[in-house]
Amino acid sequence: MFERFTGDARAVVQGAVGHAEAARAPRVDPGHLLLALLDRESGRCRAVLAALGVGAERKESVRRALADTRRRAGLSRADSDALAGLGIDVTEIVARVEEAHGVGAMSGDRRAGRGRRPFTPDAKDVLARALRAAGARGDRHIGDEHLLLALVTRPGGEAEILHDHGVTHETVTQALHDGGAESRAS
């Protein structure tokens, strides 16, 4: 599948690995892919995000929201609300775990050392969804915009965060259609 990735999409995947390494996370997850997309200075995804008003300040807001989601072990607000309906206060659980084990203890990052970082099943799902997004759009290659489309269509914290910042499947598709992105990669 990676032979169909554009240079921009490959840079995102490499950037995601870099984010996982920097966090000393044992595996690359969808949040790392989102962070790598936000880092991009060029590419169709960057143009789409700019067209949707996701500039430097809003990118930092996305980063903060992602960090907060990681503190809650990846639970989205919808997940937390559902648990609250069952009488489970996620905020209280996070506070107690962090009191006993330190801030970020629920993130799932077990402080890996050096070496290859495998992708979580969720991150692999993002890559597979990107392939399907490219196919659905009639694109022969998988670009960084397809990774963004995959993240916004996949249930979870990353899609929720993007949605909160006006980045949805509909807005991304419209921005791509309206030419809010650079010309198609070949």
Structure in words:
The chain has a single domain, classed as Double Clp-N motif, CATH 1.10.1780.10. The chain starts with 6 loop residues before the first helix and ends in a 9-residue tail after the last helix. Helix 3 (44-51) crosses helix 8 (144-153) and helix 8 runs antiparallel to helix 10 (169-177). The protein is globular. The chain has helices spanning 7-22, 30-39, 44-51, 56-71, 77-85, 90-101, 121-136, 144-153, 157-164, 169-177. By secondary structure, it is an all-alpha fold. The chain contains ten helices and no strands.
Please provide a brief summary of the model.
This protein is an all-alpha fold.
Give the structural class. Answer: mainly alpha
CATH homologous superfamily caption: Clp, N-terminal domain
The poorly predicted ranges are: 181-186
Distance between the first and last residues' Cα? 16 Å
Note the beta-strand portion: under 5%
Fraction of residues in H or I helices? 55-70%
Note the topology.
Elements: H1 7-22, H2 30-39, H3 44-51, H4 56-71, H5 77-85, H6 90-101, H7 121-136, H8 144-153, H9 157-164, H10 169-177
Any descriptors?
peptidase activity, mainly alpha, Clp_N_dom_sf, Clp_R_N, 0% strand, Double Clp-N motif, 10 helices, hydrolase, Clp protease N-terminal domain-containing protein, disordered C terminus, 186 residues
